[in-house]
Amino acid sequence: CIPDRTNLCSNLSLATQAVQTKSNSSSAIPFSLETLTLDGYFSFENTHHAAKDFGNTNHFHPSVILYPKSVSDIFSTIKHIFNMGSTSALTVAARGHGHSIQGQSQAHQGVVIYMQSLKDPRIKIHTGELPFVDVSGGELWINILHETLKYGLSPMSWTDYLYLSVGGTLSNAGISGQAFHHGPQINNVYQLEVVTGKGEVVTCSEKQNADLFHGVLGGLGQFGIITRARISLGPAPKMVKWIRVLYSEFSIFSRDQEHLISMENSFDYIEGLVIINRTGLLNNWRSSFNPKDPLQASQFNSDGKILYCLEMAIYFNPDENNIMNQKTESLLSELSYIPSTLFLSEVSYMDFLNRVHLSEIKLRAKGLWEVPHPWLNLLIPKSKISNFAQEVFGNILKDNSNGPILIYPVNKSKYVYQILLSIPISDLRYIFSTSLLSYCRWNNKTSFVTPDEDIFYLVAFLSSAMPSSTGKDGLEHIMTQNQKILNFCAAADLGIKQYLPHYHTQEEWRDHFGPHWELFVQRKSTYDPLAILAPGQRIFRKAI
Ligand code: FAD
């Protein structure tokens, strides 16, 4: 703990080991929980599935799973464990959809709360000038989309994949191609209901219990369990024009991406991909996109090259087809991509947002979904991205056949010029007085930490490993490559942050939070002083 806060930290000890410490199993057996009266129930059997996540490399078995039907089930369980104090080793992990990578939603010999069984509140939509939806913390984003679309409304900020829970993504950030415009998901929340590590139920927002509100958003589940969230909504479009183009020069690709995210009237979604040494790339695109120039596209050769794909989307309704096409053409005319690689498609808003689910279905059919996923997600400051790209793409990584590599910039604030005054000095000439306005899309009071610069890139190495392989598609090889990338970032002092962070030592967590570490520890002491919650993040360890 930090020296000047030793009193706050008497009950918190920091995890310094890679694996969770095995607690005294007799004190961990949670039979006393059976005395609680619940609306839902505890299951002491068939707990193995809670020892698995999307990463498929960490397996910590809980002693019991709580299937809550009400918030009271959650707070009475936590209160009970809290009241046992340090005589019990029991910890509690909320499990949203278990799509973590390194066991973050698991609790070794502890209690896993299966958040999806909490259906209160049902998805409740409020229309009006500032529409919003109230949902349970265990609700999946795909269900929210289905419901809100019935009212012509939709959340504005998304993740690429929608079978994730509200509590799970709000505990991280929720970043996708809309974040440059609307901020991450944690910036699109009006209010939360949280059960703290002391078993208290607290409603919080920017104005009410703001410290807990900010702490929980991006707080890696450390300060409370989100049982309800109020999420802002906006008008939903019916259709999406979805566009891909290629670049061979990283500097031109990133210049165009940064240009697009800085415009006031840009695309609605901007992402990117790195494609290393892929044969027949454009041919594969034809299953979902149409080439603008089929002949030229068929002559493009992707073999042996490092290519950068800029992916953009523009939302529209069918009666706005002409305006949308004009805007698309105008925006594309500002870009310097390889002309023969322009591919376009039109899909429904639902199909666009739910696009990764299609890949999931195909991979599941081939038995390739439930394999190990040694993912690495990094946030890299804009000033260091070309240095990073030069070393990593083509040097550390010779190809990306193990899975996609996403790369796109986001900006914490947006700067636009506002015309304050225009004075006519002749028939056609005016003097303009302007001022620089900054719109902050990222609330820097939340627990989520980003690089220091205003613009940074999300680079996501989304690898899948073949379970028994010892070759280039094996877990060990991919993890070694990930480590090489991290080592390079450290040696070159790039000032990166991990997204969906995973660390082994106290120093690494301190480094990750930087100047925010002290506040993080203080919030832990305030809201979860016994370190009961989210042990799978391995930041704090319950003292017994
Ligand atoms: P879980 O794995 O269940 O939980 C994650 C953490 O949050 C755990 O520590 C858990 O204890 C805690 N937690 C869960 N529910 C609650 C709650 N109600 N209250 C408090 N704490 C809670 N992320 C992005 O930002 N953008 C993307 O585009 C994106 N795409 C993805 C695509 C796929 C295929 C996958 C597998 C993941 C993707 N992610 C993305 C990462 C994802 O957002 C996180 O892994 C997220 O935590 C998963 O949500 P979950 O419901 O499965 O969380």
From TrEMBL:
* Annotated keywords: FAD, Flavoprotein, Glycoprotein, Oxidoreductase, Signal
Q: EC number(s) per UniProt? A: 1.5.99.12
Q: Which reaction does it catalyse?
A: N(6)-dimethylallyladenine + A + H2O = 3-methyl-2-butenal + adenine + AH2
- Which co-factor is required? FAD
Stretches assigned to the FAD-binding PCMH-type domain = 58-236
In the UniProt record, does the keyword Oxidoreductase occur? yes
SUPFAM superfamilies given for it?
A: FAD-binding/transporter-associated domain-like (SSF56176), FAD-linked oxidases, C-terminal domain (SSF55103)
Q: Name one Pfam family in it.
A: Cytokin-bind
Per its UniProt entry, what is the enzyme's top EC class, as one word?
Answer: oxidoreductase
Q: Which InterPro entries match?
A: Cytok_DH_C_sf, Cytokinin_DH_FAD/cytokin-bd, FAD-bd_PCMH, FAD-bd_PCMH-like_sf, FAD-bd_PCMH_sub1, FAD-bd_PCMH_sub2, FAD-linked_Oxase-like_C, FAD-linked_Oxidoreductases_BP
One Gene Ontology MF term: cytokinin dehydrogenase activity
Q: Which GO terms describe its biological process?
A: cytokinin metabolic process
The entry sums up its family as follows: Belongs to the oxygen-dependent FAD-linked oxidoreductase family.
- Family matches, as PANTHER family: CYTOKININ DEHYDROGENASE, GULONOLACTONE OXIDASE
Q: What is this protein called?
A: cytokinin dehydrogenase
Tell me what organism the protein belongs to: Acer negundo (Box elder)
